Amino acid sequence: MKDINVNRKENRFNRHKKILRRFKRIDNKNPRLRITKTNSHIFAQLLDDKKNIVIVSSSSLQLKLPNGNIDNCKKVGADIAKKALAKKIKNINFDTGGAKYIGRIAALADAARKEGLKF
């Protein structure tokens, strides 16, 4: 019997490597919006890879939301966009962390776009 979880982890890791390779190949000066999701919460960080610093961050824990469902992901996306726009950052690269662009990840991205971020 195959170990499904190992294959899932490897697939997510390979997707994330492919995303990061694409950002390095583009070599632009845009910060990277990194999304991390767990079963119960979602985290978003705006990273500057040149200086290796976190510019702004937001999460369902930081906003004191009970979980990371789709409605709360929209709130996190709107919050990270407002914080980024306050720092005068409009153009970003979107990094899903190897997760597929559906569900909670897509809801967060749509909310960030609606607030004014471009990616």
Characterization of the model:
With 119 residues, this protein is an alpha+beta fold. Helix 2 (70-86) runs parallel beside helix 3 (104-115). Helix content is 44%, strand content 19%. The protein has helices at 4-26, 70-86, 104-115; strands spanning 32-37, 42-48, 53-59, 93-95. It contains three helices and four strands. Strand 2 and strand 3 form a beta hairpin. It starts with a helix and ends with a helix. It has a four-stranded mixed beta sheet.
Overview features:
four-stranded mixed beta sheet; 119 residues; alpha+beta
At a glance:
By secondary structure, the protein is an alpha+beta fold. Helix content is 44%, strand content 19%.
- Give helix % range: 40-55%
How many β-strand runs? 4
Radius of gyration: 14 Å
Mean pLDDT: 89
What is the beta-strand fraction?
15-25%
Order of secondary-structure elements? HEEEHEH
Q: pLDDT under 50 segments (min length 5)?
A: none
Write out the strand line-up for the largest beta sheet, numbering strands in chain order: 3-2-1-4
Distance between the termini: 41 Å
Largest sheet: 4 strands, mixed
Globular, elongated, flat, extended or rod-shaped: what is the shape?
Answer: globular
Q: Total helix count?
A: 3
The computed structural class is alpha+beta
